[in-house]
Amino acid sequence: MRETLEATPSIRRPTDSQPHSQEVLAPFERALSAHDLFAALRVLNGSTRYRFTGVYSFEPGIVKSVVLYDRDNPHRRTGDDVPWFDSYCMLTAENGAECDIENSLVDARLSVHAARLKVLSYCAVLLRTPSGEELGTLCHYDVIARKTDPGVFDGLRACRPAVEVCLWEHLKVRLHALPPD
User: CA distances (Å), 148 to each of 29, 99, 103, 122, 139, in order?
Assistant: First the structure.
């Protein structure tokens, strides 16, 4: 996979942005204007205490890591793909909007979840195609429990439209590259 994902330079701005999200969105947009989603995720991650910030796409039976920023390993560019039922991204899709897990060890929804001992905190917004279909997630997560700071979801929501464009363009390019049946 290419190390950068191209995006169209025009980005839809949310109408209800909070000051925090505007502080995140401007440098995020600058990174995207260079067609570098990885750099943009690094910017977004810098506005949080989470170790990881990633973009994941939904594929049959799996949640695929598209781009990942890991604060402790800044040269790593993708994460592991995760079986659908073992992912927290599935919970985001089921909710239809977003998901917040501050401590998986005490979260009743996760008492038997496969990831609960590995990923203790997670927050995500759902990404959609232009026609409204579920596409993937933009998320922060960590291997330690973290309280979701005020403004974290504002930042995710503010950056979501630009990430949706990037991911949709990436997936269209990938689909066109497949050989015909």
Answer: 23, 11, 10, 9, 12
Question: What are 2-17's pLDDT values in tens digits?
Answer: 333 333 222 223 333 3
Q: What is the CATH number of the domain that holds 107?
A: 3.30.450.40
Helix axes 19-33, 37-45, angle to 10 degrees: 160
pTM (predicted TM-score): 0.83
Task: Give the C-alpha separation, 125 to 97, whole Å.
Answer: 6
Q: Torsion angle, CA of 73/75/69/33, rounded to 10 degrees?
A: 150
Angle at 176 between CA 138 and CA 63, to 5 degrees: 30
Distance CA 160, CA 154 (A): 10
What's the structural domain count of the chain?
1
